[in-house]
Amino acid sequence: MSSQVLARKWRPRDFASLVGQAHVVKALTHALTEQRLHHAYLFTGTRGVGKTTIARILAKSLNCQKNGVSASPCGECEACVDIDAGRFVDLLEIDAASNTGVDDMRQLIENAVYMPTAGRYKVYLIDEVHMLSKSAFNALLKTLEEPPAHVLFILATTDPQKILPTVLSRCLQFNLKQMPPADIVGHLTHILTEEQVNFEPAALHMLAKGAQGSMRDALSLTDQAIAFSRSNVSVDAVRDMLGSTDTTQIEAIFNALIAKDGAALVSIAEQMAARSTSFYDATVELAQILYRISLAQVVPNAQTDDMQLNDLIQHIAPLMGADEVQLYYSIVTTSRDQLHLAPDAQAGFTMMLLRLLAFAPAKNEGERAKK
């Protein structure tokens, strides 16, 4: 296996290999094919969803020496190879977090008037553009509105709310979506198969969930899992690495709630602490499963990608009333936000479990009278 990290080794090199952003790929592909390019693009979205990757592919599409301006850069010519390697002289990647001032923008504007050195277009990629100062934005406005014919601006940000409306109005904006877990699992399956690394499919589902919609985070976690498990990515190894909640623990919590067994709930919390489980993540997991249970009660055919989770939901849903699920969901989500106020995370989580038990709806009049 190469020593290069997976996120760099498996970075998409063309639009065809890009995962999870079909709406952006479709628009850019049509624009390139019909030669109807905008002079400024704004890519927004959370970390690791492909903003910089799409910008580099677009730069290759504009400057490919073999195929010309097209949606299918060859990937073999000098321009394509240099862009992939990050050394193409006419692709200028600027970190706005480090170049926030008006003087930096003025220097950029002064250099923009010169023709490209090696390519067809001079492409300016300004990452985290929301970090620019107001004066820097204002200095950029005129050039952004009427740039030279050989210049293309690509702005990328994780926080579009901080960008001036006057800048937004001058750009063609694309919002990159978080990656669905199924897309992440499919991509990880392909990569680990190619890398000849043993893995369990359920472990990849856990990594996808831990990535929270970011493909780069998923690949970084996979790198970590490969090292942690000695190239055998198993469910147990990933759970220990992430401090994830075991499905059997979640099932045990629900069984104890149904049985009204307070001692079992306290024991489960102690076992989770012994395994260094993240109690915050455990409350999130409980809330997600309660949502799925409520959904299963209303829409019985609703399924998730996780077969083990489907089995748990199908087992628990008939044993709990709809009012009980709604009450539990409210308590769990409220407790999650208050977890930091507890003496420690275990105490806060245990109190949440006991609160679920204390406020559980009575099943019959005899039990209500007993309470």
TrEMBL record:
Enzyme Commission number(s) of this protein: 2.7.7.7
Residues annotated as transmembrane: none
Highest taxon of the lineage: Bacteria
CDD domains: AAA, HLD_clamp_pol_III_gamma_tau
Pfam families: DNA_pol3_delta2, DNA_pol3_gamma3, DNAX_ATPase_lid
Keywords per UniProt: ATP-binding, DNA replication, DNA-directed DNA polymerase, Metal-binding, Nucleotide-binding, Nucleotidyltransferase, Transferase, Zinc
Gene Ontology terms: cellular component: DNA polymerase III complex
Occurrences of domain AAA+ ATPase (ranges): 37-180
Keyword Metal-binding: yes
GO terms for biological process, alphabetical: DNA-templated DNA replication
An MF annotation (GO) of this entry: ATP binding
Keyword Nucleotidyltransferase: yes
Catalytic activity: DNA(n) + a 2'-deoxyribonucleoside 5'-triphosphate = DNA(n+1) + diphosphate
Top class in the EC scheme: transferase
SUPFAM superfamilies: P-loop containing nucleoside triphosphate hydrolases, post-AAA+ oligomerization domain-like
Oligomer status and interactors: DNA polymerase III contains a core (composed of alpha, epsilon and theta chains) that associates with a tau subunit. This core dimerizes to form the POLIII' complex. PolIII' associates with the gamma complex (composed of gamma, delta, delta', psi and chi chains) and with the beta chain to form the complete DNA polymerase III complex.
PANTHER family linked: PROTEIN STICHEL-LIKE 2, REPLICATION FACTOR C / DNA POLYMERASE III GAMMA-TAU SUBUNIT
Family classification: Belongs to the DnaX/STICHEL family.
NCBIfam families attached to this UniProt entry: dnaX_nterm (TIGR02397), PRK05563.1 (NF004046)
Chain's role: DNA polymerase III is a complex, multichain enzyme responsible for most of the replicative synthesis in bacteria. This DNA polymerase also exhibits 3' to 5' exonuclease activity.
Protein name: DNA polymerase III subunit gamma/tau
Taxonomic path: Bacteria, Pseudomonadati, Pseudomonadota, Betaproteobacteria, Burkholderiales
